[in-house]
Amino acid sequence: xxxxxxxxxxxxxxxxxxxxxxxxxxxxxxxxxxxxxxxxxxxxxxxxxxxxxxxxxxxxxxxxxxxxxxxxxxxxxxxxxxxxxxxxxxxxxxxxxxxxxxxxxxxxxxxxxxxxxxxxxxxxxxxxxxxxxxxxxxxxxxxxxxxxxxxxxxxxxxxxxxxxxxxxxxxxxxxxxxxxxxxxxxxxxxxxxxxxxxxxxxxxxxxxxxxxxxxxxxxxxxxxxxxxxxxxxxxxxxxxxxxxxxxxxxxxxxxxxxxxxxxxxxxxxxxxxxxxxxxxxxxxxxxxxxxxxxxxxxxxxxxxxxxxxxxxxxxxxxxxxxxxxxxxxxxxxxxxxxxxxxxxxxxxxxxxxxxxxxxxxxxxxxxxxxxxxxxxxxxxxxxxxxxxxxxxxxxxxxxxxxxxxxxxxxxxxxxxxxxxxxxxxxxxxxxxxxxxxxxxxxxxxxxxxxxxxxxxxxxxxxxxxxxxxxxxxxxxxxxxxxxxxxxxxxxxxxxxxxxxxxxxxxxxxxxxxxxxxxxxxxxxxxxxxxxxxxxxxxxxxxxxxxxxxxxxxxxxxxxxxxxxxxxxxxxxxxxxxxxxxxxxxxxxxxxxxxxxxxxxxxxxxxxxxxxxxxxxxxxxxxxxxxxxxxxxxxxxxxxxxxxxxxxxxxxxxxxxxxxxxxxxxxxxxxxxxxxxxxxxxxxxxxxxxxxxxxxxx
Length: 697
What we know:
Layout: E1 2-8, H1 14-34, H2 39-54, E2 56-65, E3 68-75, H3 85-102, E4 106-113, H4 124-133, E5 140-147, E6 164-168, E7 175-183, E8 187-189, E9 193-204, E10 213-220, E11 226-231, E12 235-241, E13 246-254, E14 267-275, E15 279-285, H5 292-300, E16 305-311, H6 334-340, E17 347-351, H7 361-372, E18 376-380, E19 403-409, E20 416-417, E21 451-455, E22 460-464, E23 470-477, E24 480-485, H8 491-494, H9 503-514, E25 524-529, E26 535-541, E27 550-553, E28 559-562, E29 565-568, E30 571-577, E31 582-588, E32 591-597, H10 616-622, E33 626-628, E34 635-638, E35 646-647, E36 650-653, E37 659-668, H11 672-696
Parallel strand pairs: 3-4, 3-5, 5-6, 6-33, 8-14, 15-16, 15-17, 17-18, 18-24, 34-36
Antiparallel strand pairs: 1-2, 2-37, 7-9, 9-12, 10-11, 10-13, 13-14, 19-21, 20-22, 22-23, 23-24, 25-26, 26-30, 27-28, 27-31, 29-30, 31-32, 35-36
Helix pairs in contact: 1-2, 2-11, 6-7
């Protein structure tokens, strides 16, 4: 195959040659006006001169024809497994591939489109762009995509140089019902109503038998489900109340409808982090002392804490004769605080408080009942705790985790975590903790100077002090919690005495443990999920030496035992790869946890009805068409560029006629001297012709 063309290699810019051509045309017009007989020869001479300047050449190309390329994309994503779509796809791909391969001088490029990574859905646009980039555009005669049309990256579809033919699987009678979560909060306040907006949608050729209502059930953390009858197609707001902090897994399940394509999109999982509203703390200081401001600074610095603080400045036994009318002190509202509104507080702190008749025994009994109902009390003990004014002598003594002996240890000592404290989240990992006794090294914490001796500890002793006596004891009482700190000298750390210590962090942990913050629970089962993946890290925090395995219940009801290995003091963990997405239940002893892995409703099943909508713009821009396989596999034709490329029962590709140039030969029309000689001869002939005309005249 060869091609012949004329090329130019001008000696002067084309603008100069054009100016010369204009001058020659002007002189030719003048010759015609004057009636000169040699005007034609002069015109030919001018053309010869212009040809010499333009230097025309004949270019002959030897070309090798190249084959056309047809792209065949085979959608094998999850939505293509619905109904008989896989069989439709197999038959269509086999026939179309055979027809393409039977065409003369045509090659087939077959691309399989799998599920997108990390729930990205069907990536037809990216696959088409990648396939087109790998081939010369001049050879691409068309692209055929066998799919249900649910492309989730249609905007990435490239501009094709040939028709894009969309061959749809599925049936016109297909319909599906799915659950759509429109808005769901990431956080919810414990005990307050949270609302989730959702909608039940019917898509496709919905039969009348499907009805206009559906059954929707809601379960929190895998518990008992509550059922609702909801309207299809209506925006719904469902109330939800969280009863614990941390992660709450809310599962929505829609009852399957007869005849719908799939139930994979009938479920949704929302994870809401339960948080407390502003925590309310009541701080009662028995008398002003150096450490009183420590508690106040700690609690006031926390933006999530509402602090009510009272200091007993004028006890009943103080009789100095000052008239009551001249006193500016605020009366202690004991009944309002400890009877009427006690349940509004999350934590009550008694800081060096001695029982001196301000609160009657009935009030302390009410505080005890408040703790057993789920409240919390923290006692920061001073010397009065070892006297007859001790809170131990009140009804609160029934729930205290240790008993004072009446002895005050006034000596310097170094607070240390106990072996139990090294595992307890309140004291584990405190910055600069002292090394175990007997080990060489610096003592990173400063010493305290006073401690109340405790005995008969019934709670967890997490810190010890002078003479290895209990310094910090934590315990559970009914549904509530009690903490007893047997010293009023934590403020020495705040002042940097002998290097200080983590005073604020320790007191913060004690307070938040009492308020049942999930990250400070000593017995906890924690599951951390990799974003978008199926890997799960299970952590068991415990005060026991070695917990047993964690039992994992899979979505299908089967179970697996997961062995844990020690990851640190009081922490045991394991990493586990789940076999698939779904709701998993973890159980170890009395602790249970529900966790959602992967999407409950994968993106592949968000839209299941076969449709040309997502790729419609790309098909129209390329001049292609849409065919449905339920009408039969379309025949393949070759059509000229610019002609319709799809019709009833057929689709077309456009042959490109591409070729590779094997050789190029360039031959001048005339050599330069020949152009000049020709121009000279024509000029002489014109002169002679004009001379004869004058003699005859």
